[in-house]
């Protein structure tokens, strides 16, 4: 149900004042600061109605009100206008994203870092594993009957594993296999390794078929999609938020950040709209916990029709309009930079 104009303006005033000050908001404050053209008594009556409707709550120790989860939800859905970053913020963002490092993981980590600094919240970013590109592979002799398979991906991730080497395969053979695999796989994304390419490799290295199949199977296991990689940041910054001076609340947040499977589901691109910013509040983030948090997220694009997610996680009392505008601008800038890096 949509609120009438006066109730909506009062709700917006309460939400924005509480976000700004962290203090419960009274009718006199609304009348003095927000120029609604009605008396404190009228505002007080409207706030009582909003409380009865579930949009506001009254802490036991205060005569003022604070937004409820429903109040925040209404504000975000119907009243909020995203704020574009300032020119200074845009310059900081560009400087972090347009860094000399061209590895995907580094670019994403630096993006999360500047978001944490600008929002004083925790940041999360996903990198789909299928977006990784092979940079280098090495088969290294390692004692009798063993070799180490070393794979370096463009994201900076290094995968290594030992493998048994059948009798008759020499160090020269390992070099030959390494050269062919590098020639065929370098610059190819994990998602783009097709059966035709594997058949081509097997045909060229037919004499090593048994050992080659072991190497290719190891590569598949090492790089297969097991859920997106998640980068976390902003933990020092979030300690500036007064809500997290409460040790139990902070412990709850840290516990959430350790739940890899839960975060993968929460940050899945499929759980966010294809365009624009997604805002989840309270029970939409932490369904079972005592403490409420909010998550603001946006998709970013990668080659090969892959997508990742950037997100800001913090208290429900977060500046939604500012963070939504910030994330939207960051995602657009990141899309441009990744297009230049990866084509």
Automatic annotation (TrEMBL):
Which molecular function terms from Gene Ontology are attached?
A: DNA binding
A Gene Ontology biological process term: negative regulation of DNA-templated transcription
Q: Does the keyword Methyltransferase apply?
A: no
A family per Pfam: HrcA
**Swiss-Prot/TrEMBL keywords:** Repressor, Stress response, Transcription, Transcription regulation
TM region(s), chain numbering: none
Q: Where is the Heat-inducible transcription repressor HrcA C-terminal domain?
A: 106-323
Q: What does this protein do?
A: Negative regulator of class I heat shock genes (grpE-dnaK-dnaJ and groELS operons). Prevents heat-shock induction of these operons.
NCBIfam families per record: hrcA
- Please report which protein family the annotation says this sequence is part of: Belongs to the HrcA family.
Annotated protein name in UniProt: Heat-inducible transcription repressor HrcA
């Amino acid at each position: 149900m949509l609120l009438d104009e006066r109730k909506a303006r009062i709700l917006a005033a309460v939400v924005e004042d509480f976000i700004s000050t962290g203090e419960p908001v009274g009718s006199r404050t609304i009348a003095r600061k927000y120029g609604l053209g009605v008396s404190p008594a009228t505002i007080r009556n409207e706030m009582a109605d909003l409380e009865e409707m579930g949009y506001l709550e009254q802490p036991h120790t205060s005569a003022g009100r604070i937004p409820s989860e429903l109040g925040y939800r209404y504000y975000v859905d119907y009243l909020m206008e995203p704020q574009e970053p300032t020119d200074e913020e845009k310059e900081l963002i560009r400087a972090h994203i347009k860094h000399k490092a061209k590895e995907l993981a580094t670019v994403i980590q630096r993006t999360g870092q500047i978001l944490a600094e600008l929002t004083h919240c925790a940041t999360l970013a996903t990198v789909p594993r299928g977006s990784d590109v092979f940079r280098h592979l090495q088969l290294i002799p390692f004692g009798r009957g063993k070799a180490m398979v070393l794979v370096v991906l463009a994201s900076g991730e290094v995968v290594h594993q030992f493998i048994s080497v059948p009798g008759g395969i020499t160090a020269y053979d390992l070099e030959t296999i390494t050269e062919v695999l590098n020639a065929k796989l370098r610059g190819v994304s994990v998602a783009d390794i097709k059966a035709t390419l594997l058949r081509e490799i097997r045909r060229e290295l037919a004499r090593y078929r048994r050992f080659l199949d072991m190497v290719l199977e190891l590569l598949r296991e090492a790089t297969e999609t097991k859920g997106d990689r998640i980068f976390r940041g902003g933990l020092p910054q979030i300690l500036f938020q007064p809500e997290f001076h409460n040790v139990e609340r902070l412990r709850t947040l840290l516990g959430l950040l350790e739940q890899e499977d839960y975060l993968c589901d929460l940050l899945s691109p499929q759980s966010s709209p294809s365009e624009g910013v997604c805002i989840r509040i309270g029970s939409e983030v932490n369904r079972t916990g005592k403490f409420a948090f909010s998550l603001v997220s946006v998709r970013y694009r990668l080659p090969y029709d892959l997508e990742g997610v950037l997100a800001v996680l913090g208290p429900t009392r977060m500046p939604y309009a500012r963070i939504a505008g910030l994330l939207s601008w960051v995602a657009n800038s990141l899309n441009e930079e990744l297009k230049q890096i990866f084509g």
